[in-house]
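Researcher: Sequence recovery benchmark, item below. Answer with residues only.
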């Protein structure tokens, strides 16, 4: 399991006083402020959210120590993480963090191994899992119940029913 979980990403500067657009990856977008101090991707920088408000398609955040547009512009694209132990435990066997899927084996219902999960993406039209195929290259699959009917974290695998031709 991942030791840190991606919870948000800083977007463009908003206004002149250092606010930034923030894309939250938490189930409740406003919950990102509940995690207090967030860590940058490399773990060397920390960010505290001092204020957060909803806006069209994003959140607007005021971060401690960021007081002007120039400083805010320099943060664009920074991914924000929280240590896993500060997150609530999944409530049941059917609840998980997307980070838990990375590295899982991917197989068909009849047991044919297809590869392993290397990423989970959302480009705006729904979640996709990226599978590193055993034959080389990667394949993107819709992360839906129809395409991924079984997630078995204990066994370390996903069972998939990929669209015809997805794996060659």
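Model:
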């Amino acid at each position: 399991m991942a030791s840190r979980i991606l919870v948000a990403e800083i977007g463009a500067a908003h206004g002149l006083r250092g606010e930034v657009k923030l894309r939250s990856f938490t189930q409740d977008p406003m919950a990102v402020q509940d995690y207090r101090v967030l860590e940058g991707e490399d773990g060397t920088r920390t960010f505290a959210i001092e204020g957060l408000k909803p806006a069209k398609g994003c959140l607007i955040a005021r971060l401690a120590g960021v007081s002007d547009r120039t400083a805010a512009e320099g943060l664009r694209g920074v991914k924000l993480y929280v240590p896993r132990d500060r997150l609530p435990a999944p409530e049941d066997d059917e609840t998980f963090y997307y980070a838990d899927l990375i590295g899982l084996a991917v197989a068909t219902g009849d047991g044919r191994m297809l590869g392993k999960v290397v990423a989970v993406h959302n480009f705006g039209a729904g979640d996709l899992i990226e599978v590193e195929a055993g034959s080389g290259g990667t394949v993107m699959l819709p992360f839906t119940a129809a395409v991924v009917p079984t997630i078995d974290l204990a066994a370390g695998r996903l069972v998939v029913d990929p669209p015809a031709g997805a794996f060659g």
